Amino acid sequence: MSVGTLDRAASLNRWRHRALGEKALIGLGFLALAVTLPPWPGAALVSLAMLGFTFPGARVPWRLWLATVALPLGFLAAGAVLLLVQVGGDGIGLALGGTERAALLCLRAMAATFCLMFLAFTTPAAELIGGLRRLWVPAEIVELALLTYRFVFIIADEAMAMTAAQRARQGHSTRSGWLRSTAMVIANLLPRAMARARRMETGLAARGWQGELRVLSQRNPVSLGMVALVLILQAAILLAGTLL
Amino acid sequence: MHIMEGFLPASHAIGWYAVSAPFVVAGAVRLRSVLRDKPEARMTLAAAGAFAFVLSALKIPSVTGSCSHPTGTGLGAIVFGPAVMSVLGVIVLLFQAVLMAHGGLTTLGANAFAMAIVGPWVAWGVWKLAGRMGLRFAVAVFLAASLGNLATYICTTLQLALAYPDPVSGFMGAAMKFGSIFALTQVPLAVAEGLLTVVVIEALSGKTRDSDRIAALAGEAR
Amino acid sequence: MSAILSVEGLRYAYPGEVPALCGLSLEVTAGRKLAILGPNGAGKSTLLLHLNGSLRPDAGRVTLAGQAADYSRRGLNGWRSRVALVLQEPDDQIFAATVAEDVSFGPLNQGLSEAEAALRVQGALAALGIAGLADRPTHMLSGGQKKRVAIAGAVAMQPEVLLLDEPTAGLDREGAEQLVTVLRDLGRRGMTLVFSTHDIELALALADDVALFTGGTVLAQGGAGALLSDPALLARAGLRPPVLLELWLAARARGMCPPDAPMPRSVEDLVGLLARAASPAQAG
Amino acid sequence: MSAILSVEGLRYAYPGEVPALCGLSLEVTAGRKLAILGPNGAGKSTLLLHLNGSLRPDAGRVTLAGQAADYSRRGLNGWRSRVALVLQEPDDQIFAATVAEDVSFGPLNQGLSEAEAALRVQGALAALGIAGLADRPTHMLSGGQKKRVAIAGAVAMQPEVLLLDEPTAGLDREGAEQLVTVLRDLGRRGMTLVFSTHDIELALALADDVALFTGGTVLAQGGAGALLSDPALLARAGLRPPVLLELWLAARARGMCPPDAPMPRSVEDLVGLLARAASPAQAG
């Protein structure tokens, strides 16, 4: 999986042209519910809702989704195991109530991760970052983030090509060789990234750049029906989560 | 090492946002003034941010045989300075969350504190201190990068321990638990990162003739 | 025929390097397509960067429509509105997340309103034949598409002169031919084109005029036909004539083509010439 | 004529993308020069990455000298010692500060002693005609020199097969011609060459065999002469015959060339053919 894989999926799914606000309401709204509500049944309901939005809704490719979620879930497993044990004066033992705490943590973290995954798989990162402009984030920082985004793919491609070239010359066949080769990639990548930055300066200056990166952004219309559906669902989960 | 989405309870998530905010805001204010004077520094900074991101996606072997990713914290702090790294670090963490599902949005505050604030400042402090003590260039780089990496790991461990204290031995016990699990991978990794950074800086200096040119690489971003 | 851009005695060296341009003079005629033809490293890109004020010469001067170049911020803005530059590497010029956003950058910098800029974007995408790509994320474009997006970004500024650095570099034959068609079309609408290339076939296919470049100076400037069929002159720039013209010259030297016939521009032209020359002989 | 590399029913898709290779079969004959010819985006680079084990197919198999590919670490090391890969962009594969250091990277990784590696470096630089550049800092090389250094880095590993991705991309005509000479020379010493290109003229100039590539499959594989002079076949891959062959075909169709004459490989060949056909008519 390369750096651009998720972003590509985000640009190709069925909900690509839904308004940013709607997707943010879904992803961030349910994320807030997931971490604030008591995990049972709140987080479990959030997980269910998110799977619904992700698969039947946005038709995210499930194979890729599974491959991506594996890593955070691995971290979760390692972390949760630690809640099962306790350390005291008399050594290590099974923690009292550890199973329950670990289970609740897993429920919450999974629900929250599904929310993040929904955002990552339905909304290109540039759109998300661009949305920060509408919040309190200063324009310069948003521009910096967007330029970073643009450079990420270019530099990642270069790094991948360099690594492939080294593999072809067996640069990764021993551990010390691997370390040395990776260092060489990094050492070559930094000046190249800087040279690219300078060329981009020239390229944008030629287009009349005055110091501010203004572009026309397309805004997708908000569907009130979807907003209503999401709000009702969130209210229901909030209610169920606090009462049950 | 990122704390995953949803791993911290809401109160901790908000707390770490509050702790990180002043550092990031201060970095952002500084950055804005740099950008006002030199709009073209945007390109250099963006390239640096992208570089840091790509670095974190590269695999390096660790001594135990597992693979991991360099944090680039030390290298970034040495080349670009810690204040700028705090903002770049947050941008990088944000992209890691939305492009690779590493880390998360609710845990962004906590991860930023460990990786974009503690790590770079420790690395930078060690780098300056070592310079004042007259240590050899390579030794200074090694210490800065490996201790910066280690500081990030210790900070994350403490954050986890604070959120999930041991039922018997409390915070200290939890810190030991989380610490010992991650020490297996993270201590060798800190060493690997230190070595890596030394080789990188030496290769860079080889390309640019003298170590002063490291600063020149950063250009307007410094 | 008036010179919209002209350059006199231009000298330039990148800091710490040997001179890239060594006292170079050149004229760009309004409404025509000029190829800057020469081997790699001859200084072609450096010249283009001077033609829109991206670089300032160490000596010599650049004149835009009779006025000496003005390197003040204001002056440069006006200049770059009239003379747009497309770099060789599209990734050095495309920065926004989607195609339409990126193309809108130049027009907005010119101070146009959002509505006007949107029209310019539409027009430029249509002119480049990529209206369907407006919403496409820029990092998901093929090489040829990126190239056209970069050109659209310049065309949207409605410049009088379009400077292109190696426009077909990296494109396959089909991509290059499509681009040539698009560029010819822009020329037909009155835009002045200046492009650098090491590809003599491209110069033959697209240029009205050619400036032969080598070692930081212009060896010769003139009509494409005369220059590209002069093997001795081309050889001095380290070039050979296009295969088509080489064949034509060889055939003419052996008396297999009429010596006064016009230069062929396509395979069909040349076969026609050869056939015409062969039939009277067969009849005789 | 034995197949040193062969590929059967290869399928591959980059994660989350449409398939790049769709059930592709191909044979590389030892000691010959094979061009993988097709438009950009046809999957040529992806195929090359499979031929040295850089990518692992989703389905189908790669066979090296009759043995099924072994993707273990050990297996890959052996494979890459026998099959070397040169990427399109030299900057992606030149890492070290000087030319000699960079070229020694592969031999040292193969476990050779420093003395042996130094000999290999000398040999490779000599083979590429750049012995004089050994001590040159790598960031002070021209495009053509970089390309040769990158190839020297592969040749120094003394592989049996050399894979080259778009070897002449970005080079001007002189640079490309020099490179073709060097590659022919490597071929003459017995090295098997496989190169990808969208440049049909390059395929004509260098290849013994051609595999015509389009949309992730091989449309046809065969001798260069037969394939490159078949306009109908080429058109199906979005290509046109080289100008030289187009002329030859057009001339032959009009009876201006003997129908049984061998395919011309250079301008001189073709002029000779035309002259031979014309003279009997003039005599008659």
Automatic annotation (TrEMBL), chain B:
InterPro entries: CbiM (IPR018024), CbiM/NikMN (IPR002751)
Superkingdom as given in the UniProt entry: Bacteria
Topology in the lipid bilayer: Multi-pass membrane protein
Gene, per the UniProt record: cbiM
Chain segments annotated as transmembrane: 7-29, 41-60, 72-99, 105-127, 139-161, 181-204
Lineage: Bacteria, Pseudomonadati, Pseudomonadota, Alphaproteobacteria, Rhodobacterales
Family: Belongs to the CbiM family.
Known pathway: Cofactor biosynthesis; adenosylcobalamin biosynthesis
Name listed for the protein in its UniProt record: Cobalt transport protein CbiM
Stated role: Part of the energy-coupling factor (ECF) transporter complex CbiMNOQ involved in cobalt import.
Swiss-Prot/TrEMBL keywords: Cell membrane, Cobalamin biosynthesis, Cobalt, Cobalt transport, Ion transport, Membrane, Transmembrane, Transmembrane helix, Transport
Complex and partners: Forms an energy-coupling factor (ECF) transporter complex composed of an ATP-binding protein (A component, CbiO), a transmembrane protein (T component, CbiQ) and 2 possible substrate-capture proteins (S components, CbiM and CbiN) of unknown stoichimetry.
Subcellular location: Cell membrane
From TrEMBL, chains C, D:
Membrane topology type: Peripheral membrane protein
Entry-linked SUPFAM superfamilies: P-loop containing nucleoside triphosphate hydrolases
InterPro entries linked to this entry: AAA+_ATPase, ABC_transporter-like_ATP-bd, ABC_transporter-like_CS, ABC_transpr_CbiO/EcfA_su, Co_trans_ATP-bd, ECF_ABC_transporter_ATP-bd, P-loop_NTPase
Residue span, ABC transporter domain: 5-240
Signal peptide annotation: none
Keyword Transit peptide in annotation: no
A molecular function (GO) term: ATP binding
Keywords: ATP-binding, Cell membrane, Membrane, Nucleotide-binding, Translocase, Transport
Pfam families the UniProt entry points to: ABC_tran (PF00005)
Protein localization: Cell membrane
Regions that span the bilayer: none
Function in brief: Part of an ABC transporter complex. Responsible for energy coupling to the transport system.
Similarity section: Belongs to the ABC transporter superfamily.
Name of this protein: ABC transporter ATP-binding protein
Source organism per UniProt: Paragemmobacter amnigenus
